[in-house]
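We emphasize that the prediction below concerns an isolated chain of 135 residues; any contacts that depend on oligomerization or on bound cofactors are therefore not represented. The input was used exactly as deposited, without trimming of termini.
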Amino acid sequence: MNIPVPSAQSVRSPAAASVPGRAIDAPPAEGESLEHAFCRVHHCSRETFLRRAFWTSLHPHAWPVARLMGFRADLFAVDRALLSHCGRRTTLAEVEVEVKAFSAFLDYGFLRRRCHLRMSGHRLKRFAARYLPPR
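Result of the prediction step, given as a token string:
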């Protein structure tokens, strides 16, 4: 079965062209939040958004521990809160501010700080860039 892969020429917006992996068939609507844009593209619930954003943004070496502990583990409560805040943002710039604010005041603790058992801010911003306009 051949599945057509869209080419770079099929991208509808200039912002989408600059972001690899952008959700190209559904350009962001004006003022649409990250959560709504994701759920519109993937026809899913808020819970699915939180889970997909979490697993996409998690540091890869933390996947085995996260699979054992589960998405709802207390260790990841801060990550879920960050996703909830970022999910309400309407531009990539707002998500970047949110990530910076969270990382500035949190005392991560040993597991989060030293073992990086947490989401990656960089990976979260790349995830958001697929669904939101830059500014």
